[in-house]
Amino acid sequence: MAPVPVLISAGEASGDMYAARLALALRRRVDVGLFGMGGPRMREAGVDTVVDAAEVGVLGVVEIVRKLPALRRAWKRLLSEIERRRPALAILTDFPAFHLRLSRVLRRRHIRNVYFVCPQFWAWRPWRVRLVKRRFVRGLCIFPFEEDFYRKAGVQTDWIGHPLVDSVRASITREAFAQRYGLDPRLPIVAVLPGSRPSELAHHMPQLVPAVALMNSTNSMNSSGQRQFVFAVAPGLTKAQLKAYMGALAPAVTMVEDATYELLGSAEVAIVSSGTATIEAALLGVPMVVVYRVAPFTAWVVRHLARTRLFAMVNVLAGKEVVPELIQDAFTPERVVRETERLLASAEDRATMRRELASVREKLGPPGAIDRAADIIAEMIRNQAPV
């Protein structure tokens, strides 16, 4: 018997990571032919990515408008493959701007949709949960409070826990990391995670580079001593993309690829773009400063539609601001320097933040999130019947 065709789709670096792990777990349970949209990790997991997620990976109203031609081409190519392969099920990973529209088309073709990693509609435009109710037969959420939010809206939902609980760990010691990248293990390491999309680099690097340059220039005269700044290159990005923003700072910093967890595990403090990276830093217990900036019009839209006063997910989970949030106009080089230097100078502040982050980690659920998701979806594929 031929493998059951299943569409699996992700449009962001974190979604690519989760969907890749789900693809491997599904193959251990059922004979499926997986195709769809994704990135390098999904391709490594054997998914036939007929659309590269990099073609559609944008955030914000202004950014989407600029990329409409590429989005249209990706959309047509994906629909063509869906029509040709007729999947038994569609697994859509977060990325609501694209996947809500896709789910409508799939439902009209009588293809069942599963939302793997339900979007955070509780924080922003919550009325869109009604679309999930109409177009999805199942929702899988990764934060505990989301299950109640979706179920109240009539969506059959399961809380699976957070997939990162299983995977976030440093594979080498701090000393080995320092040796590998030519760092001094006796000096503090400051990790800088500027984002996983080109659009995030465009908004974040012009603030981060002068902040790091200022801290680097005062290294020798600062009471907290010298520090070493290390930038993490996210999957799907390159060192060249980061260097394009650095100018004269480039020789003074280190950049690492495929070593984000090792970097975070070695850092005294991290400056982190808001998103999945804040959860990764929390799981590794790294004191952090969270930053984020989008185009001004996008920020205006978000301010009028947001339903939460906290932005960083670690703060949302804690129910209070346990890590500083420098969002939009508050994200300036001066504020980054001030908050980073404060943490570097105070062992007590760092210890307090680590205790708070430990409480956040407990709310992410037990290990096994991907296996729980794979069990649910595999059973749906076997049954071939509406839930």
Secondary structure blueprint with pairings:
Elements: E1 4-10, H1 13-27, E2 32-38, H2 40-44, E3 48-52, H3 61-66, H4 68-85, E4 89-93, H5 96-108, E5 112-116, H6 129-135, E6 138-141, H7 144-152, E7 157-159, H8 164-167, H9 174-180, E8 189-193, H10 198-217, E9 228-233, H11 239-246, E10 254-257, H12 260-266, E11 269-273, H13 276-283, E12 288-292, H14 296-305, H15 313-318, E13 325-327, H16 333-345, H17 347-362, H18 369-383
Parallel strand pairs: 1-2, 1-4, 2-3, 4-5, 5-6, 6-7, 8-9, 8-11, 9-10, 11-12, 12-13
Question: Can you give a write-up of this model?
Answer:
The chain is built from 18 helices and 13 strands. It has 387 residues and is of the alpha/beta class. The strands form two sheets. It has a seven-stranded parallel β-sheet with strand order 3-2-1-4-5-6-7, sandwiched between helices. A six-stranded parallel β-sheet has the order 10-9-8-11-12-13, sandwiched between helices.
Quick summary of this structure?
The protein has 387 residues and is an alpha/beta fold.
Mean pLDDT over the full residue set: 92
Radius of gyration from the CA trace?
21 Å
DSSP, total strands: 13
Biggest sheet character: 7 strands, parallel
N-to-C CA distance: 24 Å
Q: Show unreliable segments.
A: none
What's the number of helices?
Answer: 18
Helix/strand class: alpha/beta
Q: Helical proportion?
A: 40-55%
Features:
single chain; 387 residues; alpha/beta; 7-stranded parallel β-sheet; 6-stranded parallel β-sheet; 18 helices; 13 strands
